[in-house]
Specification:
The complex is a heterodimer of chains A (about 475) and B (about 1050). Chain A is of the alpha/beta class. Helices cover about 35% and strands about 15% of the residues of chain A. Chain A has 14 helices and 17 strands. Classes of the chains: A alpha/beta (about 475), B alpha+beta (about 1050).
Chain lengths: ~475, ~1050
């Protein structure tokens, strides 16, 4: 190695990589960011290739996350946490039960949906999810989730960023910061939502992490490969003409570089980045072109926005994208205050695509590398609101995981007899985050970013890895 | 039972007792004697749990001690951690360990609640005084050593360091260079060659204006051979009003400037936020002394107007006035605390490079900042509040408010007039109901027969209003079948059959019977409604004249205590009997009532039970039941069952025609037990009242009747008239009056003074000290934190603030010349923007965990000079830029980079990428499209036609503009010390494919066409405009070759446009040497 090489930061890059693998020093990268390594020419390894894959802290169980976000808060007792006691005490509020809710609620409301045992595990799933029931042996259902606040906005933020106020990076941003992405020609963290959920972009914000770790929101209500990513298509030049133009740009940049000694990380990085952008035009448009799938696959997923999003999610993780979030819909659709039977339509839209996604990933050998997370920002009350509806409930709710190193065909934790509060093996959102990071090969206490004089974490000062669910 | 103890435990016990004895002799506080039973209890029940379930995180051997709590010695357990005492002997409820085990607030151990029996053991143990044989220190020492803390460089007073000696005495151009050169020489480094003049003027122009130099300015500088040439350039640039746009924006990063909030729930955008941005720009342009700049932003409202501007002291408060506002719909206290944190954090990091926010939950782990100091500062902001300050004389505000009041009054007058006349307009048409319905009949039959039925003609023929006719048509449409009970008969009519039967033009009588019946029904309901009876029922006194519509007989209130009332009255001469039950006037709705044994009595004494004859009319909250209560169960009143009567739910009215020969009416009014006794019902509150009338009661109609009126006359009914249509229904004086009122309203609007400008500012609130929140939890408060300055700077016996909130005193303390932090921090920020890295490379953290200065003496030299210059930022620029250090080239140097690859010691200038503002502005500038206008409301960058400078873009916390986000603009939710700089393909997609870039390329190409006779000249001109230099021969050749290439495809951009895009998209355009 010549001295010239080193002057351009190679030593630092090497050092960083060495530290990155050996000491789990991702936090140090953050430190460098604050100290100035991300600011100018010298030693700019993270900033030149902020999305380059980085070694995790330890051997990961999963490489990708698909978060199926049922925004609005699906009811646990009508989906994956059957409660026979609700039938028995329908309409009553047994004095022994503590059922204090945010708003005034009535008596216990039995589920209008029947439950049935599925699979070898015999786990009971509601009639809302017959297809998902069919893959129940791949699911790890956590029936003891809880969070802090029974309101959508703070709880959406908590589920995404581990904090109820809009001041922290999203989990996807943390993953990208910690691990980079396997495909430099695609965004590393993609958020699919037809329209926008309540709260909006803050849910996939990079906050104090560099802007490139922000989630890329794609409105998939109408997937047009030419438009899904901003400026992904050149509307002005034919392909060969664009290549010709880019060649000139490359030559100019090369002359500029040579006039400056022929070596400079930032200048070279940008030259490379232009080429990457050129390739991205093709690759990103391809990945969102669902028409490339076989008829059989399309039929397996079914039709509708959510089905398309699930299929796009598979194509994205297949192409190396680190995290994909699929929001059920615009606003907060699962928020059935008025009538819990409203869950039926929504479940119908997601049931088949979710089961298809799991089977598809499995068949392609991707399920073992891909962690699927299903759930809302909180659950719903077992007591009635407005007659047949259910109110928000942060005391207890259900989420499930699949693939990516979790045990299949199991339930973990339990809520009380009425499904109101988590009581056994409680799992807070912080614990879920710690577990997801762990599965991705990251120690949630070590994935830090120095900001404002503090080392920030996704899990703040909390979080327990729920080892019991890990295969 | 000691004999059952295992040997190791016994030895342990023995050891414990021995050490305890020793301990007692040492410390009186531990004087307690453990009985063998207590010891056994501890060893069997308590110690194993502590060891197995708690020590992992709460012992001196823990890898990380959580919450500052140790549970492995008696004293440590009693002292507790950051949340307080873990064990209070004798008081389980006050012992945090017990509440935590119960999962009551705290939840320990985190892996799951322990069995009930174990928790009970702990309760018993604490109740018996928490006997504990374990000795040892309380460990985890806390408390800050301020004397030691103050030795950190940043808290030392600013000195005036002597100029260091240097070997190469000819190199320095400025005293600054003596400091940098001394470091270089000490590290065996050599400064590279100075930058060429072209690079220098480009660097200086971008540095001070954020724009490229224009060719004529370059020429002037190149031609100026005097030693003052560069100084002249600097002065020219500093005098430009675009200087403030560049440097103001740097400050706005620190101020986390934005015009909205991250969330949209219950917040409003700060529409006047841009005024703060404009003030910052102007303050830099005026070279406002920095200490004044600081003071105005913290306490402008308390300092009063400046000589320059009567309102800038209020606008400056946008620094806090535009601060974050958080969700307050749940956990409001926590959200308020979070907002205070935003203020404390932005204040202390922004002005002083101190991370005081770290001390919100616990004493700062690295810097001498106790939690109390955090709450001392937070208390100052808690004693202040957000305030939209008018930027005008108070008289104008009064005038504006009066104007608004007048608009409101005039508006209300119009609305009231309309409401009154709409009701009248609707009611005036009641007599036409039958005719409208009959017209609809004709219309519907025509449609069924497939004939056209134009409403205009129909209305004209029937002398009806077409507007109302259309409303009737939709109201009476068969799709509304079942929605209005009173129209059941209408919808039941068989249109085909009826019409056939009638034939010709005449309407079938079955139809007119229905239409006239419906009109009659509405009319009678209106008569009831328009009656003048009071709701307090009073029967006409015997002997006085009876007023029609007044009751003949009224019972007292019937309640649970007095559940029945007898009714007996003379009905001689009455034709009808109206039996009315009201809710008793209390609005409660458990009004289950019964007319028990209602009967008519003849003069001879014959009785006729009303339950045996058919009523004429029955209206009420529910259907009337015979011999049953309204729920269909037996009538029970006061616990007794009655076989005969009517069960009703008030309000209710039964109407009977009295058969001849009866002269008295007798009954008992009863409150049915089902109402008073229903679970969750009204209990003792239930009350009803029975009254008897001889004609239609005046007073309120029943619920059903009211509903019907609403459906027909209400705003959605067929007779309703919309506001905008009312005028055509009015005639004569009414119409004139409405027109006049509308005119008044318009005049009030026109005359009202325009809304005045406001500043999103701060103002004083009720001054009060805060308590320290234990671990940042507002629900758990500890001692008072008097409002005052930080102890590490202001000293151990600093005074408390007593002037209002204390904000003015705080502002003075922060901007004081003897505050070692404030001048150093700003000087370092300015240095950072000139060199790409600060002397302290963590510009907002000068604490222990921040980087140490590479040139501490230089930092002091600059800070001292800065204060002496009257806190002049412009003078600071001059000093820095006139140094040889600033004027160094960016060339590499092999030997230097071997020693200092990061260029910490400044042996060369750092090559920098333009930030998004400078890059976008330069694109617009070179393409000839930049709008140089200063100030004003924010513009949207998403608009490709926006040609204002980027500093005027709308900055959103909720959704940052995608271009800004793409090029590393910071999140405006938090103060930003420096930009990160990432290089990713999405940025290049913008360069290659965005309409904005294409627009600039087109403009640039257009501009160039007029600036040369051939491509060679145009290429030269293009390089001069874009890069400030002529092209090399190679570049000239490349360009010409590209421009003359044969066209093989159809494209939307010309060769020149494509070439222009390349020039604008090149590295040279984006990176600054």
């Amino acid at each position: 190695m010549t001295a010239n090489d080193r002057s351009n930061g190679l030593t630092r890059r090497e050092t960083l990589q060495r530290m990155g693998t050996g000491l789990g020093v991702l936090g140090l990268a953050g430190l460098l960011a604050e100290q100035g390594a991300l600011g100018f020419e010298a030693g700019s390894s993270i900033s030149d290739k902020p999305l380059a894959p980085r070694a995790p802290h330890f051997k990961p169980r999963a490489k990708h996350v698909i978060h199926l976000f049922m925004n609005g808060g699906p009811s646990q007792v009508d989906t994956f946490d059957p409660k026979p006691a609700l039938d028995k005490y329908n309409g009553q509020r047994p004095p022994s039960a503590d059922l204090k809710t945010e708003r005034k609620t009535g008596g216990l409301l039995k589920s209008p949906f029947a439950f049935k045992k599925y699979g070898k595990s015999g786990i009971e799933v509601s009639e809302l999810f017959p297809h998902v029931g069919g893959v129940v042996d791949d699911l790890c259902i956590i029936r003891s989730m809880h969070t802090n606040i029974p309101n959508h906005e703070p709880s959406l933020l908590m589920m995404n960023s581990g904090e109820t106020q809009p001041t922290r990076p999203a989990m996807g941003s943390w993953l990208l910061y910690g691990l980079g992405s396997e495909n430099q020609n695609l965004p590393g963290y993609v958020v699919l939502c037809p329209g926008k959920p309540v709260v909006g972009p803050q849910l996939w914000s990079n906050s104090f992490l560099p802007g490139i770790y922000q989630g890329t929101h794609i409105n998939h209500s109408n997937i047009d490969p030419k438009k899904v990513i901003q400026h992904i298509n050149n509307n002005y030049l034919a392909k060969a003409s664009q290549r010709e133009q880019l060649d000139l740009l490359k030559q100019m940049n090369q002359l500029h570089l040579e006039a400056r000694g022929g070596k400079s990380n930032p200048l070279e990085a940008r030259i490379e980045s232009l080429e990457m952008a050129f390739r991205m035009q093709t690759e990103a448009q391809e990945v969102f072109d669902l028409g490339r799938e076989t008829k059989a696959t399309r039929e397996a997923y079914g039709t509708g926005q959510f089905a398309n999003a699930c299929l796009a999610a598979r194509r994205l993780v297949e192409s190396g994208v680190r995290m994909v979030q699929v929001y059920y819909g615009n606003g907060q659709p699962w928020d059935d205050h008025g009538n819990i039977k409203g869950h039926a339509d929504k479940a119908k839209n997601v049931d088949q695509p979710i089961a298809a996604l799991i089977k598809d990933l499995k068949q392609r050998g991707l399920l073992q590398d891909t962690l699927i997370v299903w759930g809302g920002e909180f659950g719903r009350t077992p007591v009635a609101e407005n007659g047949n509806g259910r109110d928000h409930n942060h005391h207890g709710f259900t989420m499930w995981l699949a693939g990516g190193g979790v045990k299949g065909g199991m339930t973990y934790g339990a809520s009380d007899d009425f499904g109101f509060a988590a009581v056994e093996n409680k799992v807070h959102v912080h614990d879920l985050h710690a577990t997801i990071l762990h599965l991705m090969g990251l120690d949630h206490e070590k994935l830090t970013f120095r900001y404002s004089g503090r080392d920030f974490r996704l899990t703040d000062v909390h979080g327990r890895v729920v080892k019991e669910v890990i295969a | 039972m000691p004999h059952r103890m295992h040997p190791p435990a016994f030895i342990l016990l023995l050891f414990s007792v021995l050490s305890l004895t020793f301990f007692i002799s040492q410390r009186a506080s531990a004087a307690e004697k453990l009985t063998p039973a207590q010891l056994e209890f501890f060893e069997n029940k308590i110690r194993p749990i502590l060891v197995n379930r708690c020590y992992e995180c709460h012992s001196q051997k823990s890898k990380i001690v959580k919450g500052g709590l140790l549970l492995d010695t008696r004293d440590a357990t009693r002292k507790g951690g950051e949340s307080g005492a873990a064990v209070v002997p004798g008081k389980p409820a006050e012992s945090l360990i017990y509440t935590a085990l119960q999962y009551d607030g705290l939840e320990m151990p985190p892996k799951g609640k322990l069995p009930k029996s174990v928790i009970a053991d702990f309760a018993n143990w604490i109740k018996m005084g928490a006997p504990d044989p374990r000795t040892g220190p309380t460990a985890v020492t806390s408390g800050i050593d301020f004397a030691k803390g103050r030795t950190h460089w940043a808290y030392q007073p600013i000195t005036l360091p002597a100029l260091p000696a240097v070997r190469n005495s000819t190199w320095p151009e400025h005293d600054i260079d003596r400091f940098t050169l001394a470091k270089l020489e000490a590290n065996k480094l050599h400064p590279v060659a100075a930058a060429g003049k072209l690079a220098l003027i480009r660097r200086a122009t971008f540095d001070l204006l954020g724009l490229p130099p224009i060719p004529s300015d370059v020429d002037t500088f190149m031609a100026d051979d005097s030693p003052k040439a560069f100084a002249r350039v600097i002065d020219r640039l500093l005098a430009s009003e675009h200087y403030g746009e560049r440097w103001g924006r740097y400050w706005l990063d620190v101020a986390r400037y934005s015009e909205d909030q991250a969330h949209t729930f219950a917040t409003r955008p700060n529409t006047n936020g841009y005024r703060y941005r404009d003030w910052v720009v102007s303050a830099f342009n005026r070279d406002m002394p920095y200490d004044t700049f600081v003071r105005l932003q913290i306490a402008g409202d308390l300092l009063g107007p400046t000589d320059e501007d009567p309102y800038e002291h209020l606008v400056a408060l946008g620094f806090f006035g535009l601060g974050a506002q958080y969700y307050k719909n749940t956990d409001r206290e926590r959200a308020l605390a979070d907002e205070l944190d935003d203020r404390v954090d932005t204040l202390t990091r922004g002005f002083m490079g101190l991370t005081v926010s770290c001390a919100r939950c616990h004493d700062h782990k690295f810097d001498p900042i106790p939690t109390q100091d955090y709450y001392s500062i937070a208390g100052i902001f808690r004693s202040s509040r957000l305030h939209n300050a008018p930027l005008c004389e108070p008289e104008y505000v009064t005038g504006y408010n009066d104007g608004q009041k007048r608009i409101k009054t005039a508006d209300a007058a119009v609305k009231k007039f309309m409401a009154d006349h709409k009701a009248t307009a609707a009611q005036s048409k009641v007599d036409d109901i039958a005719r409208y319905m009959e017209a609809v009949w004709t219309y519907q039959v025509s449609r069924i027969q497939g004939k056209s039925a134009p409403t205009a003609k129909l209305a004209k023929d029937r002398k009806l209003n077409e507007y109302l006719l259309k409303r009737w048509i939709s109201f009476l449409d068969p799709k509304n079948t079942g929605k209005v009970t009173a129209l059941d008969a209408w919808f039941a009519l068989d249109r085909k059959k009826e019409e056939l039967l009638a034939g010709g033009d005449a309407l079938p009588t079955s139809v007119t019977r229905v239409t006239q019946g419906f009109q009659g029904r509405i009319t009678s309901l209106l008569n009831v409604k328009d009656g003048v009876a009071s709701t307090n029922l009073v029967a006409s006194k015997p002997g006085t004249a009876h007023k029609p519509g007044q009751p003949r007989f009224v019972t007292p209130l019937v309640t649970k205590v007095r559940p029945t009332a007898g009714i007996d009255l003379d009905i001689t001469g009455f034709k009808n009997l109206y039996l009315v039950v009201s809710d008793g006037g209390n609005g409660k709705s458990c009004d289950h009532a019964d007319w028990i044994a209602p009967r008519l009595v003849s003069a001879k004494g014959d009785e006729l039970s009303l339950t045996k004859i058919k009523w004429k009319q029955s209206e009420g909250f529910a259907a009337t039941k015979i011999d049953r209560n309204y729920q269909g169960k037996p009538i029970r009143v006061g616990g007794k069952t009655y076989p005969i009567g009517f069960g009703i739910h008030a309000p209710s009215m039964l109407v009977f025609e009295i058969p001849a020969g009866y002269t008295r009416f007798k009954a008992t009014g009863g409150l049915d037990n089902s109402g008073s006794d229903q679970p969750g019902g009204c209990g003792d509150q239930a009350s009803v009242q029975f009254s008897v009338y001889s004609e239609t009661p005046s007073g309120t109609p029943t619920t059903a009747g009211k509903d019907l009126l609403t459906k027909v006359l209400g705003k959605n009914g067929p007779l309703a008239v919309a506001d905008k249509d009312l005028e055509q229904f009015l005639t004569g004086r009414d119409r004139t009056q409405l027109v006049a009122l509308k005119k008044d309203h318009e005049k009030a609007r026109a005359d009202a003074p325009a809304m005045y400008a406001i500043a999103h500012a701060y103002t004083e609130s009720k001054p009060a000290d805060m308590n320290v929140f234990v671990r940042g939890n507002p629900a758990n408060q500890r001692e008072i934190a008097p409002r005052r300055f930080l102890r590490v700077i202001a000293g151990d016996d600093r005074p408390s603030y007593t002037e209002g909130s204390g904000r003015r005193q705080l502002a003075m303390a922060i901007s004081a010349a003897d505050n070692p932090l404030t001048p150093r921090v700003i000087v370092n920020r300015v240095w950072q923007h000139h060199f790409g890295r600060g002397i302290v490379s963590t510009p907002s953290n000068f604490g222990k965990l921040g980087e140490r200065p590479t040139h501490p003496q230089l930092l002091d030299y600059l800070a001292r000079g800065f204060i002496d210059s009257g806190w002049s930022i412009k003078q600071l620029h001059r000093d820095i830029m006139l140094s040889a250090t600033y004027q160094l080239g960016t060339d590499n140097h092999a030997a230097n980079s071997e020693i200092d690859a990061d260029n910490r010691y400044l042996w060369r200038m750092n090559r920098r990428r333009l930030d998004i503002e400078a890059w976008r502005d330069a694109l617009l500038h070179v393409s000839g499209r930049l709008d140089p206008q200063l100030k004003g409301p924010s513009t949207m960058l998403s608009d490709a036609k926006n040609v204002r400078r980027t500093v005027y873009a709308k900055i959103s916390r909720h959704e940052l503009d995608s271009l800004l986000r793409l090029f590393d603009f910071p999140d405006a939710n938090i103060t930003s010390a420096k930009r990160s700089e990432t290089t990713v393909p999405q940025q290049q997609l913008f360069v290659l494919n965005s309409p904005f870039m294409v627009e600039q390329a087109r403009s640039f190409a257009r501009r160039l066409q007029g600036e040369g006779v051939d491509d060679a000249e145009r290429i030269s001109r293009a390089f001069r405009l874009a890069y400030g230099r002529p092209p090399s021969q190679r570049e000239q050749d490349l360009g010409q070759a590209y421009l003359s290439l044969e066209e093989t495809e159809t494209n939307k951009l010309s060769r020149w446009e494509r070439y222009a895009q390349v020039l604008l998209g090149a590295n040279e355009f984006m990176y600054l040497d």
